[in-house]
Amino acid sequence: MPKISRSKLAEQTWNALNEAFPDSACSLDFDLPERLAVRGILSAQCTDKRVNLTSKELFEKYPDMRSVADASDEEIAAVIKPCGLTASKTASVKDFASRMVNEWGGVIPNDVDELMKVRGIGRKIANLIVGEIYRTPAVVVDTHCKRVMKRIGITDSDEPAKVEKDIMKVFEEDKWIAIGHLSVDLGRTYCKAQSPDCWACPLSDFCRRRI
Ligand code: SF4
Fold first, then answer.
1. From residue 86, how far is each of 65, 82, 144 by CA, in Å?
2. In tens digits, what is the pLDDT along the chain, a chain of 211 residues?
3. Cα dihedral 186, 24, 107, 76 sign
C-alpha cells in the first residue's frame, strides 16, 4: 500500500467513520451537566452501560450535588460499587460535588485545568466534560481511541497526551469531539483489542495496521 500523509489519512478516516457511524455520540446518559460529569468520573475502567445503570440509582437517592456532597462516603460507595474502583471514585464524586456547592456556585467550569484539580479527574474526563457540556473543542483519548489511532497510523504513541496532540494536529478543531466518539464506535465494532475484524472494517483500504 503506498504511504499517504497523516492529513490525508485523517481525511479518509473522518469520511469512513462518519459514513459507518452516522449516529455516533457519547454513550453516557446526559440529563443534567453535573450528572454527566459524575458519570464521566464513574466511567474509568467501567462500561458506559454499567455507569448509566448505576448513576440512575445514585441520582434517585441523591438528586442534586448538595445531597451528594452531604452524603457520607459509605453511602455513596454503597451505590457506586458496581462501577469498581470504589474508594477512589467515591472520593472523586464527593470532591466534585462539594466544589460544585462550595466553590463553583453550581456551575461547572468550562476549564480543563480547573476541573483537573478535582481529585481523580484527569485530562480525559476533563476533556469529556468541557466537550460534551460546553462543546469546547477537546479530544477524549480513551482506551479505544488510543488503540485505533495507532493502528490506523494517526499516531505512533501509546501515551494519551501525545495521542491527543497528534489527533489535534491532523483533524480540524470542529472534529475533535466527534472523533473521540467515532473512535469508540470503531473500537467496539471492528477494531477490538483482541482480533480486530479488518475484513469487515470500513477503514481497511487505507489503515496502516490492516491484517
Ligand atoms: S483495518 Fe483492522 S486494524 Fe485497521 S482500523 Fe480496521 S479493524 Fe482496526
1. 19, 8, 23
2. 557 899 999 999 999 999 999 999 999 999 999 999 999 999 999 999 999 999 999 999 999 999 999 999 999 999 999 999 999 999 999 999 999 999 999 999 999 999 999 998 999 999 999 999 999 999 999 999 999 999 999 999 999 999 999 999 999 999 999 999 999 999 999 999 999 999 999 999 999 987 5
3. negative
* Cell triple for 152: 490506523
CA angle 149-46-186, nearest 5°?
30
Are 91 and 44 in contact by the 8 Å Cβ rule? The answer is no
pTM (predicted TM-score): 0.93
Whether ligand 1 lies within 6 angstroms of the CB of 151 is answered as yes
Q: Which residue has the cell 490492516?
A: 210
Mutational test site, ligand 1, from 148, 189, 192, max ligand atoms within 8 Å of CB:
148
Cα–Cα distance measured from residue 159 to residue 151, given in angstroms and rounded to the nearest whole number: 14
Domains along the sequence of the chain with CATH: 6-25+139-189 (1.10.1670.10), 33-134 (1.10.340.30)
Ligand 1 atom with the smallest distance to the CA of 196 is 7
Is 190 a pocket residue for ligand 1 (Cβ < 6 Å)? Answer: yes
